[in-house]
Amino acid sequence: QVQLVESGGVLVQPGESLRLSCSVSVSIRSINAMAWYRQAPGKERELVATITSGGTTNYVDSEGRFTISRDNAKNTVTLQMNSLKPEDTAVYYCNAELIVVGPRRYVYWGQGTQVTVSS
Question: How far, in Å, CA of 103 to CA of 61, rounded?
């Protein structure tokens, strides 16, 4: 079983930066894609950024403020968030997608970490 644990969520002021970390229980080299999602109160969970095993990244409405990266040696995926805005307030979830022969797709989720941006 793949386990994901997020950390780094905290209360910050608008305009400040924050780095979230996702620790993965298995080698992320075996994971097809890692992603960060977020869910604000009363809203649907939405995709923030993805990174494939090949290093390809994709961002959704980050306005260039977010950067997703991976550390294969440490089996971690991070989300660097700069110039945070109140609308960034949400629970941020780490996600792993594994596609195996079959074909079959497996999706794993972390427990989430709360990010609050408020003055």
Answer: 31
Confidence of residue 48 (pLDDT cuts 50, 70, 90): very high
Q: Which residue has the tokens 């989300």?
A: 79
Mean pLDDT, residues 65-89: 96
Count of H helices and E strands in the chain? 0, 11
Q: What are φ and ψ of residue 82, in 5° steps?
A: -115, 160
Both tokens of residue 67? Answer: 């950067």
Specify the pairing of strand 90-100 against strand 104-109.
antiparallel
The amino acid present at 42, given as its one-letter code, is G
Given a contact cutoff of 8 angstroms between Cβ atoms, the answer to whether 23 and 113 are in contact is no
- CA–CA distance, 40 with 88 (Å, rounded to integer): 8
Say which residue the tokens 């923030």 belong to. Answer: 48
